[in-house]
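Task card 7
Instruction: Convert sequence to structure tokens.
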Amino acid sequence: MGESSHIDRLLSGGLYKKIFGSVLSKDEGADAEDLTRLSLLALSKASSMRNWPFVSIALESLAADLQRKDLRLEQVLFGCRFPNPVGLAAGFDKNGVAAGIWHLFGFGFAELGTVTWHAQKGNPRPRLFRLAKEKAALNRMGFNNNGAVIMRRTLERQKIPVPGQRPAVLGVNFGKSRITSLDLAPDDYASSLELLAPLADYAVINVSSPNTPGLRDLQDIRQLRRLVEKLRRIPGCPPLLVKIAPDLENEAIDNLAKLSFEEGLAGIIAVNTSLDRFGLEGRVLPQTGRTLQEEAGGLSGVPLQQRASEVVKRLRVAAGSELPIIGVGGIDSPEAAWERIVAGASLLQLYTGWIFEGPELVPQILEGLISQLEQNGFQHISEAVGSGVPWKE
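Output:
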């Protein structure tokens, strides 16, 4: 029991800052991608062995530390029951190797991928950079993943409960293979979705990554409509959402909201990483000696907070109150989470903030949301969505 308690403290964040704090406090040092790969290797082992006695004890202790269950945070959206509104964003568990344990970290849902039909190595390294002072990251990964066929095998090997019977919702994020032309993109997406549809609670059409040439052209209304119409015809197609870029003009955001209604999309995820440098154009990356202005890739983390909230507000006005919005981008505190909820997001996703703050960020956010509901007299999280009510100390 003592050893399992030690593992629990390590995973849950008790030792997280002691071990990773010095690494995360500076740009240089341990490579960000290598750290992610090593973390996923450990998480993969834990997921595949989660029913082993010793491992299960450690994971149960982890869940006791990080999970916060409260009926006021539960929601049913596009046919999925979300135990709470905080999820893991796509991009971390690209191949679904830890799909069996994300709920133990307190998440109400996790989004796997981005997955493509063809396995691909992605862009040349280095391609993931820490911006420690700004609590941000620059990535130009390029949809590196093992492909849809391997993801299906990986998920089946973990013996995850079927959709609707899981402790947390599992979405799958789909992208276009780099070798596939834009004309053939619908077929490429459809091949992946058809294979993985039986395993996905919901599916995300990723047309907004800045790291696959031409991909963002699929945000054009005509292109996106053609893609959605193709995917909706797949037998057993799960609820479809689209993930958009923060760099869209307001008119394009309004048009996407209109398209989502017309095509019956289940929701919109706002936002992906940004090509904007948000005043950090002159910031130098020690690893390359070049400025952010000179570097390719998408920016994530705290610098995106304001723009991400603006896009959510814009979508809420354009789409009305019926279309669910998942807010992502720079959420690193309970205050930032609340701001995104009252801007109009029904659900939230974490990635960069979770890396910098550690696993304890999830329960901190959930506790903060509950506290704000109580202070503002809300009976349920849905009452706060789009309310514009500011954070109360």
